[in-house]
Structure formats: C-alpha cells, structure tokens
Amino acid sequence: MSCHRYSRMSSSAEGGTPWGHHGRMSWRPYEIAAVILGFLIFWPLGLGILVWKLWQRSQGFEGDFFAFAQEQGARVRDAVSGVAREGSAAWGGPSFMRSTGNVAFDEWREGELARLEEDRRKVAEAERDFAEHIDQLRRARDREEFESFMRGRKGEDKGA
C-alpha cells in the first residue's frame, strides 16, 4: 500500500524505522498548520486530521497529504475501471435495473415500477395543490386581519 515514488522513508531492511530519522515523524509545515487549524475550528476535525496522518504513517507512507490522496484516488479509479471492464454481467447498475433473465418477472417489475412512479407523481401533485391551498388560506386570513385593522383605524380617526 505504500507509494515508493513519494516515500522519503528508508526501508526497515536498510535499518530505518517507520517513524523516520531518530524515531521522529517528519511533518511538513502545512500539515502542522492543518492540524492546528482543525483543532481551532472544530476539535474533531483536528483530531481526525491527526489520526489520519498517524494512520498513513503506520501504513508505511511517508509522503504528504496530497500525494496520499492521489495514491488513494488512483486505487479507487483502478478498482472502478476494473469493474467497468468486466462488463454488464459484473455490474449492471442498481439491482432494480438489472435483468433477472426471466422475461415475465422483468415485465411485471417494469409495470410495478411504472405504477409506483405514477403514484409518486400523484402524491407530489397533491402536495403542490395542498401547499397552494394553504397559501390561499394564509392570504385570505392576512387580508381579513388587515381589513379588520383598517376598520379599527378608521374608527379611531372618527372618534378623535
């Protein structure tokens, strides 16, 4: 799992230790700043950065945050492209979209999914209609309260 391109660590066969020279880890200034800022902003963030840094060192990776992220990203891309190369038999998308091989079942499933989508659309439409109805009720109530206020004000003006 270690990336030797970015590694500054000498191997244990050469007499080195995973902690770098003289048992100490080598930290870059921006890594120290990231940990300190993490603790200042939100202490679990700083703790997470510190644990992550220690974990990557325990895995034998001596590079910086960015090199480690690039290596992990490359591993994920390789895994995803490997799955994509295997074809649709390995991964045909979400399970509800895969063919089972049974035509009757697949047709029934398609029909049920279409029915459910239609039901979802009807519920969304009913929700919009209800929201409009509530908005109309609020406007009517606000209009009534305003008119009551104006009637009361006119009554005060006549009494003065």
Tag the structure with descriptive keywords.
4 helices; flat; mainly alpha; 160 residues; 2 domains; disordered N terminus
Structure commentary:
The termini are far apart. With 160 residues, this protein is an all-alpha fold. The chain is built from four helices and no strands. The relative contact order is 0.06. It folds into two domains: 92 residues, no CATH class; 66 residues.
TL;DR?
The chain is 67% helix and 0% strand.
Kindly report the average pLDDT value: 75
Radius of gyration: 32 Å
Summed up, the helix count is: 4
Structural class: mainly alpha
Beta strand %: under 5%
Indicate the percent of residues in helices.
Answer: 55-70%
Low-confidence stretches: 1-22
Number of domains: 2
Q: Which of globular, elongated, flat, extended, rod-shaped describes the shape?
A: flat
The span between the termini is 88 Å
**Major beta sheet summary:** none
In total, the number of strands is 0
Succession of helices and strands: HHHH
